[in-house]
Structures are given as C-alpha cells and as structure tokens.
Amino acid sequence: MNVFIIGIGLIGGSFGKDIKRLRPQTKIYGIDINEDHLEKALELNIIDEKSNYEGLGMADMVIVGVPVDIMLSELPKVLDLINDDCVVFDGGSTKSLICKALENHPKRRNYLSCHPIAGTEFSGPSAAIELLYEGKTNIICEVEKTTFKLQEQALKLFTEIGMRIRYMDPVSHDKHIAYVSHLSHISSFMLGKTVIEKEKNEKDSFDMAGSGFASTVRLAKSSPAMWTPIFKQNKENVIETLEEYITNLQHFKELMKQDDFTEIYNEMESTNHIKQILNGIK
User: Fold this and answer.
1) Strand partners, 114
2) Mean pLDDT, to the nearest integer, of 244-266?
3) CATH assignment of 2-172?
4) Could you count the other beta carbons within 10 Å of the beta carbon of residue 124?
5) What are the residue ranges spanned by the domains of the chain?
6) Distances (CA, A) of 36 to 3, 30, 33, 45, 69
7) I need a labelling partner for 236 at 20 to 30 A (CA). Which of 22, 160, 166, 170 fits?
8) Cα(170)–Cα(141) distance, rounded to whole angstroms?
9) What are the tens digits of pLDDT across the range 130-189?
10) Which residues, 6+ apart, have CB-to-CB distance to 48 below 8 Å?
11) Distance separating alpha carbons of residues 47 and 44, to the nearest angstrom
12) What single DSSP character describes residue 182?
C-alpha cells in the first residue's frame, strides 16, 4: 500500500508514525514545500521517501495536513491526480468551506472530510507523536458523499489507530468546534498578550508564574500560520463565541465591582460541573 502525506507536521506526521507501527509493509511518501521538513521526516523515519504531486497517481491513500486555507486550493489538485481507488482525507479544523470547495469535483467520492480532535501546541515533523490519536474523536462530515469502499478503507485505519468516530454535518461541526477549540486558542493568545504587555519589564512576575498560568497560555505557543486561516474560515462562529465569552467576562467584572463575591462563588460553583462533563468524555 502506498500512502502519501502532504504536509509533514503534527497531524500528518502523527498519522505517519501510527501507520509505520501498525502497517510496517506500507510505503509512506512525503510531500512538503519545506525541504527541511522532508529531511527531518526522513531522519525521524516518518516517511520512506520524498515525493511530489506527480507521484500521486500511484497512491492508495492521501493524508492532507496543511493549513485550511491551503487546503482550499490543494485538495482539488490532489483529487485531479489520484486514481479512482485512492481515498483522500484531511485533518482540517474547519469543514464548511472545504466541503463547499469540493462539492462539484468529479472525484468528490474519493474524499473523506475528517477532523481528528487531537494535537499539541507544537508544529513540524518533530512534533509528530505516536499514539496521538488513540482514544481521540475523529469527526467525519458528509460521509455519504464518499464511495463506500473508500470509507471502509479509511475507517479501518482509524479503528486500528484506536479513534472514536462521530458523524456530523459541516455547518454543525464548525459551530461546535468554535466553542470547544477555537475560542480556547483565542483566550490563550490574548491572555499571553495581556501578561506580556503588562509585565514585559517585570521579570519577577514571570518567576512567580505557576502551573496554572503555564497550562492556560500553553495554546498561545501554537502556530499563527495554522490558526489565522482557521479563524478566517470560521469567522462568523468565532465572533459569536467571542461575544458570549466577552459578555461573561464583563458580568464577572461587574460582580467584582459590586463586591458580590457570593454570586462570584455561585458562578464558579455552577461552572465546576464541567469536571463531570470532561471526565465523561476522556
């Protein structure tokens, strides 16, 4: 089996590592505009060989792990070049615009629209992690538009890796992911910005920073090249979540001004319920 990974970063590289572990006879080819990434992927044994789009005709599976704005132009090109028995899936964090861009493509049936809900704040081939996807949810959109035998081919791999599969339409996906992923990244970036601007000359303040601060701003280390296109593609949903979040922050500020710490306690206690929710989805 020939697997091509386009974009050898955290997402594509982690799939590569799992395929190497589970299917050692598979040959993995890497395509990336960054030559250093390809060399590093070879060094780390994520891929077996460097390639380019001209080689896609011999692919049995193509995994696309590039930023979502690049997917809009590159996925149609990939579908143009593959054979009829090849399945193509992506790991994009937005789905509506990508699905829209491919809806009339002659080989739409070869594409499976995926979003594996997994990752870290790191990027590039060195960020790839074996078992990253084990126990994680993979959202699949518009599954009915993919040829059944190609669905099976991808789903078999996801099952071997240990992923949970959930089906959702692209619009619902983008709305929900804005709350549980995109908003948290914005919060982290802006908290980091606030502290840097206020405390940039106060080394002692950063010496005082504990694990709570570190875990809260961890996502601010994420790649702007990846996240800016995500916010752009999901702009309407992200703005809606921000408006609700800002309303809650303003309400909290007003309670502080009013010295209403009883209500602040009640607000935090009611939010503690999130522990049960999060424990239930681990």
Assistant:
1) 140
2) 96
3) 3.40.50.720
4) 17
5) 2-172, 174-280
6) 20, 12, 9, 14, 22
7) 166
8) 6
9) 999 999 999 999 999 999 999 999 999 999 999 999 999 999 999 999 999 999 999 999
10) 27, 28, 29
11) 8
12) I
Q: Which amino acid is residue 232, in one-letter code? A: K
Query: For residue 206, what pLDDT is reported?
Result: 58
Tell me the three-class secondary structure of 54-95, residue by residue. HHHHHCCEEEECCCHHHHHHHHHHHHHHCCCCCEEEECCCCC
Q: Is pTM, for the whole model, over 0.70?
A: yes
Tokens of residue 111, six digits = 């594409």
pLDDT digits (tens, 9 = 90+) for 191-248: 888 887 776 665 556 565 666 777 788 888 888 999 999 999 999 999 999 999 999 9
CA distance 257 to 260: 8
DSSP alpha helix (H) spans, the chain: 10-22, 35-43, 68-81, 96-102, 148-161, 170-177, 183-199, 203-208, 211-216, 224-233, 235-257, 261-271, 274-280
Residue 129: burial class (beta carbons within 10 Å; 0-12, 13-18, 19+): middle
The CATH H-level (homologous superfamily) assignment of domain 174-280 is 6-phosphogluconate dehydrogenase C-terminal like domain (1.10.3660.10)
The amino acid that residue 23 corresponds to is R
Spatial separation of the C-alpha atoms in residues 203 and 188, rounded to whole Å: 20
* Cα–Cα distance list, 7 to 40, 90, 174 (Å): 12, 10, 22
Is 98:75 a contact under the CB 8 Å cutoff? yes
pLDDT number for residue 217? 84
